[in-house]
């Protein structure tokens, strides 16, 4: 490479020239970096100056580096020795390769100078940049937009060397009070930003306002409010306060992106109808509701249409009762927020029915068993349980069914009596036992009974079996169709009493009551005057019986919304996060007390979710904690408003520039390798055409 | 039979034979021409077509060569003529062909666009010629090896002899060194690039001439060796046999000068060959290999390929 040294010396003069050229190049680079080119803006003008200044010397240097020869084998080498008129001009790197070589530091410089395409306008003020970010439940659906907004604010602050402050508006999940985040560096701010996440409760504007009130800056700050477009107590005051410390820009969701709030259905209704609320009623909107079971399987979907001007709309799931009973949650498809999901517990389920089973001669599923017919009739419509009185009363129950073959102890009698007084519905069936033992003062009977069974079908008397008369319009059975082939052979007769007619829900054609009912305390006692089995009638075999049983269950009050009414607090089972996902409860989550259930309050102590234990499950929904749902009011005049959808944001070109430099470097490397014959090129796999390590060894002399 | 893989270029003999078949199939069925060629071959008497008829066997008497002829002299004719005379009958008079190809390192080379190295081209031509000669029932052998073969299997025996064998002392070098005496006026066909030192070539041809061999020099060259195209910029050329190296800053500028040089070399070999009683044939590896073989039979211009092709 001695000739390389020669050419280096020869190039000395041009090197000096290149050195001189470096100065204006550096100046031009600095100017470019400082003022930008068109839509490009550079963060580090000094890097630009240094890089641009280095380009002319690099160009000169590359000029004097000759390319490495391409080594080949050639059999007619002896002929080449005879050639003399060798071209003495020094080898030079071709122009394109020099351009390639210079473009690497050029792109590297551009990359290190951190160019931004279409940079954001500089923020007003010189003080800190305060970013208020709504992270209440309404921020869930478009959380990425808010994260993006925070990132841009942090980038901006870093570039302008201004302090950044972050203020989330929802109380943290750990139950600690809301506080202003004051990171010392942009890197720390980015870390803190990761910790801010949407919470499943509303924003607390008042607490945020308190935080802002304590702020004072020497220089006017600029404030960015990344709102979720949800109004709340103190929202306007917060805006006023923010405006007072600096120029305020409020980002608002488009109306079509506002978070929706699902309201749990009416527990007493037969169909599952869910209302959906939205904060703004300006445009028509459509949401799809999905009802899912405990394992998340979607069981039904329904569409809810918001008309213009409507802030609330309803969606009804048309599903069979059996399916409806498996539904444990309803959610809005495609919307991730705690408001877009409600949980349903037993209150919304089929009314639980208990069949008293004293364990003696009442074994389940025997055809001789009286309760079998009731279970067959109701089994697919209600949540059916059986057990002793004590067992049944441990859990909530709407209707208790007692057939004739069950004996009651004194204590059980008392418990049932109390339960009925508390609102339960007791459905009893007559039979031989009742006919024989009926006491006149039995408070678990709606009417006083005459002792003994009454044989309707009496051949001696010439009477046939009893037939059902039409139901009174006031009876709960009014809508039940009577099957014509029902015959009643025996029943028990009620003592005549002035109110017997009122208490009668169903009667035979001869006027004797077949079903009587009376209110006891808050609850009801219903007596069917014949057996639940086929001993005294074929009623239990008819469709009418099924409808009658269901009518009784519908007539019952259902179960009370509080757990057992014992006042015990229910521990959290699984709770929702701000994106509507179930998570294990945070340490701050407290058991659900009756007070909270009554008030519907939602917060870090009681996040929405399921509370309870293995036997009792209580759903705590967000809707109770959101009394009003409305959009942020119009801001004061001098507040700038912006939309998240305004995508004409700045583009950081650092990555692409560095990637370009790296790509060019690789290309250059490939070119150099190729010139040194280290890449497969034309003739690369020919035997002996190019020297390789093995082939370049001199051959042995023969 | 050592039809094993050759050590130097990875081509099996079978592959070479297959290529040779292909080249051979390009040769026209030219019985008459071959007869003409063989008729014109000197010294061993006119070869004629077998005449029909019984008891008219042709024979020829010629002088006995001690050490060469395995046949005993015919006593009666020798006594009559006063010197030892051998009687050959027609069937035994076969032309002897001794073939040779240059297997030196410098032939094991090809330029990127070619499908054969020079050595492969040489071997293909050699075997194709051997096949053709075997069909004409000639005696063939490898010039610097032992043995003569005839019949259908002869090319394969030849091929096996081309495979380097460790137990054979004779090394096929730049030029053949004769390890045996051959019948005078046998035909030698030498395939090589003839790029060896000129004195070596002269000495070798002198030796062949000395034992009475005449024949053909087939100069096989790669087009890149003739035209010197494809080299651009700074190129360093290395010899394959340790001759040294030479670098050019702009190799493309040397093409004209080199072409003159190779032309001079070709002329030299041609003149030398003709002076020693050999016919000179130039074969490029990018041209059909049977062209050179046709030239052996005098059916094509011997130096069709001598002129460098106009470079692009």
Describe this structure in words.
The complex is a heterodimer of chains A (702) and B (312). The longest helix of chain A has 24 residues, at 12-35. Chain A is 29% helix and 20% strand. In chain A, a hairpin with a 5-residue loop joins strand 10 and strand 11. With 702 residues, chain A is of the alpha/beta class. Chain B contains nine helices and nine strands. Chain B has helices at residues 13-26, 31-40, 75-81, 118-135, 154-162, 198-210, 223-227, 255-275, 290-296, and strands spanning 59-63, 85-89, 96-101, 139-142, 187-192, 214-221, 235-238, 245-248, 278-284. Chain B has a five-stranded parallel sheet, with helices on both faces. In chain B, strands 1-2 form a two-stranded antiparallel sheet. In chain B, helix 1 (13-26) packs across helix 4 (118-135) and helix 4 (118-135) runs antiparallel to helix 5. Residues 1-10, 28-57, 166-172 and 304-312 of chain B have low confidence and may be disordered. The A-B interface holds A 66-83, 85-91, 682-683, 686-689, 691, 696, 698-699, 701-702 and B 9, 105-112, 117-118, 171, 173, 193, 195, 197, 222, 225, 230-231, 233-250, 253-254, 257-258, 261-262, 265.
SSE string of chain B, helix = H, strand = E? Answer: HHEHEEHEHEHEHEEHEH
In which range does the helix fraction of chain A lie?
A: 25-40%
Say how many strands of chain B there are. Answer: 9
The chain-level mean pLDDT of chain B equals 72
What general form of chain A does the structure show?
A: elongated
| Main beta sheet strand tally, sense and closure of chain B | 5 strands, parallel
| Secondary structure tally: strands of chain A | 29
Kindly report how far apart the N and C termini of chain B lie: 47 Å
Task: Please state the CA-atom Rg of chain B, rounded to the nearest Å.
Answer: 21 Å
Number of helices of chain B: 9
Query: CA-to-CA gap between the ends of chain A?
Result: 34 Å
Unreliable residue runs of chain B: 1-10, 28-57, 166-172, 304-312
Overall pLDDT of chain A, averaged? Answer: 79
